[in-house]
Design brief:
This protein has 453 residues and is an alpha+beta fold. Among the domains are: 109 residues, Phosphorylase Kinase, domain 1, CATH 3.30.200.20; 196 residues, Transferase(Phosphotransferase) domain 1 (Transferase(Phosphotransferase), domain 1). The chain contains 13 helices and 16 strands. The strands form six sheets. Strands 3-7-8-6-5-4 form a six-stranded mixed beta sheet. Strands 1-2 form a two-stranded antiparallel ribbon. α6 packs antiparallel against α8, α6 runs antiparallel to α12 and α8 runs antiparallel to α11. It is globular and about 60 Å long. One of its GO terms (molecular function) is protein serine/threonine kinase activity. Keywords: ATP-binding, Cell membrane, Kinase, Membrane, Nucleotide-binding, Plant defense, Serine/threonine-protein kinase, Transferase. It is an enzyme of class 2 (transferase).
């Protein structure tokens, strides 16, 4: 993949043309094409003076994989942002599902997409939109959501992503009537998300995600996780710097305590947030839940002391799993979450270490399976006795909620459980998608007055 240095500078230049005064024309820079491994990735700090560049936007994006859409095209794609295509709304703005026809433009295959429209009065603004384009426009990984294109027309700011059929992890894990996520899927999601973070942290120019949470992990049809929403991402420290100083932004319950206290941001801040999400996967509980008893409202404070206690681990495991999980895998995952949630950042593992620990857990098979027992009657059995037993069973009825339930003459075996389990929720699949943020702990600054980063 090639990267052209002037591409993103020209992008910003095109977006600000109507807002900045004209500058004396500069000689057109030569196109510098180089391999990504040897080129420095462009960041927001490289775009401090966009008015000094006049390279045409359409020319600057030649050879790029990112498409520039017009507002008219996006209206066609989303059927004029029809309410029937509405998927959700978050800090950025509303999200609509759309479909790109193969006739829309050459080289762009037909596919469903998710289109995010910036709400000018929302919590995020042009800077977050630009951050998203810069990071996802240059970073490619199987566990990062794919940015297909954008629209920067007058005051309109839109982003076009690949469509993720199963929506966010938050919706799959916490929606009341969604099907229970099985243990194997939870471990697959944890591993994939960890690989995405490890890729960001170990890039030639490291990236700190800063807003890792269940609602920002999107799921493909096969539960492959992909990180989305890079509006709060920051370039990591360089040289001898140990951290990045910034205003505290993120979501309560996920942010690392030292970052909240000091504003010092490091990759270990992301590791803490990963520990919170891993804990959510284990317990089926939200990071912050005001509906629970006072001592259980903060998930980390309540659960962390029990993570290293095998005998107590069963108390915090998600009851909707009904005991169908690997006990060995659960202990190892719990111990990992304990390390990630350490109050001392240096004692937290790196994300590459997290990946190595999680890798074998997806293959653990010591899961108790439910059994169904059917006893075949013996040919020598007395038919008269069978009739008598059947008649006796009909007389044996019990009242429940004012109704009579007849006991079935056949004997069924029962599932084996490690602990008391809650009843399964109805299996109802609802279509959710990218950026749906109607939730507790939506993307917003931890402190309302902190509007920038």
């Amino acid at each position: 993949m090639t990267v052209e240095k002037f591409t993103w500078i020209s992008l910003v230049s095109g977006c600000f043309k109507s807002q900045e005064k004209a500058s004396p024309p500069l000689p057109k820079p030569k196109k510098e094409i180089c391999k990504q491994s040897s080129c420095q990735r462009i960041s927001l700090t490289d775009l401090s003076n966009p008015s000094s560049l006049s390279e045409d936007l359409s020319i600057s994006l030649a050879g790029s994989n990112i498409h520039v859409f017009t507002l008219a095209e996006l209206k066609i794609i989303t059927q004029s942002f029809s309410s029937c295509n509405f998927l959700g709304e978050g800090g950025f703005g509303p999200v609509h599902k759309g479909f790109i026809d193969d006739k829309l433009r050459p080289g762009l295959e037909a596919q469903p997409v998710a289109v995010k429209l910036l709400d000018l009065e929302g919590l995020q603004g042009h800077r977050e939109w630009l951050t998203e384009v810069i990071f996802l426009g240059q970073l490619r990984h199987p566990h990062l959501v794919k940015l297909i294109g954008y629209c920067c027309e007058d005051d309109h700011r839109l982003l076009v992503y690949e469509y993720m059929p199963r929506g966010s992890l938050e919706n799959q894990l916490f929606t009341r009537y969604s099907a229970t996520l099985p243990w194997s899927s939870r471990m697959k999601i944890a591993l994939g998300a960890a690989k995405g973070l490890a890729f960001l942290h170990e890039s030639e120019k490291p990236v700190i995600y800063r807003d890792f949470k269940a609602s920002n992990i999107l799921l493909d049809s096969d539960y492959t996780p992909k990180l989305s929403d890079f509006g709060l991402a920051k370039d990591g420290p360089e040289g001898s710097d140990t951290h990045v100083s910034t205003r505290v932004m993120g979501t309560q319950g996920y942010a690392a305590p030292e970052y909240v206290m000091t504003g010092h941001l490091t990759s270990r801040s992301d590791v803490y947030s990963f520990g919170v999400v891993l804990l959510e996967l284990l317990t089926g509980r939200r990071s912050v839940d005001k509906s629970r008893p006072q001592r259980e409202q903060n998930l980390v404070e309540w659960a962390r002391p029990m993570l290293n206690e095998p005998r107590k681990l069963g108390r915090i495991m998600d009851p909707r799993l009904e005991g169908q999980y690997s006990e060995t895998g659960a202990r190892k995952a719990a111990a990992l979450a304990y390390q990630c949630l350490s109050h001392r950042p240096k004692q937290r593992p790196t994300m590459s270490t997290v990946v190595k620990i999680l890798e074998p857990l997806k293959d653990f098979v010591d899961i108790p399976f439910g059994t169904f027992v059917y006893t075949v009657p013996n040919e020598t059995d007395n038919p008269k006795e069978d009739v008598k037993e059947c008649n006796d069973s009909k007389k044996d009825v019990s009242k429940e909620n004012g109704h009579h339930h007849q006991k079935h003459p056949l004997h069924h075996g029962h599932r084996r459980h490690h602990h008391k389990s809650a009843a399964r929720s109805p299996t109802i699949h609802s279509e959710t998608d990218l950026g749906q943020n109607q939730r507790t702990g939506s993307m917003s600054p931890l402190h309302p007055e902190a509007k920038g980063a």
